[in-house]
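so my prof wants the structure for this chain in the tokens format not the other one, which i didnt know existed until like an hour ago. anyway here's the sequence
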Amino acid sequence: MRNKNTEEIKEKIFSEIEQTEKRIAEYKELTKPIAPDCAVGRVSRMDAINNNSINQAVLRKSEEKLKNLKYMLSKIDDDDFGLCATCKQEIPFQRLLIMPQSRFCVNCSQ
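here's what i got, hopefully its the right format
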């Protein structure tokens, strides 16, 4: 991968890490235990519990994304950066800009 592209992807990774860390902090706030006295009634408490489980799932996905972003950042100077981990073909630059945490090409990711 050319230097200019690598620098652009590095900036994108730093930006995504910052945004993802902010989202993780927000989701951690949203997934705190629900106090029994917070709900108006049984239905609203059930809604709060349902929302909490959805937020927990999003939190887990965000934490996984952060882990992958940090991994990609640690590998950005390697000779094989930008190559699919499965087929070893080059991952298109646009894919890396959209999903900088991606370690696989489109075909291998499915």
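also thought this was worth mentioning. The chain has four helices and no strands.
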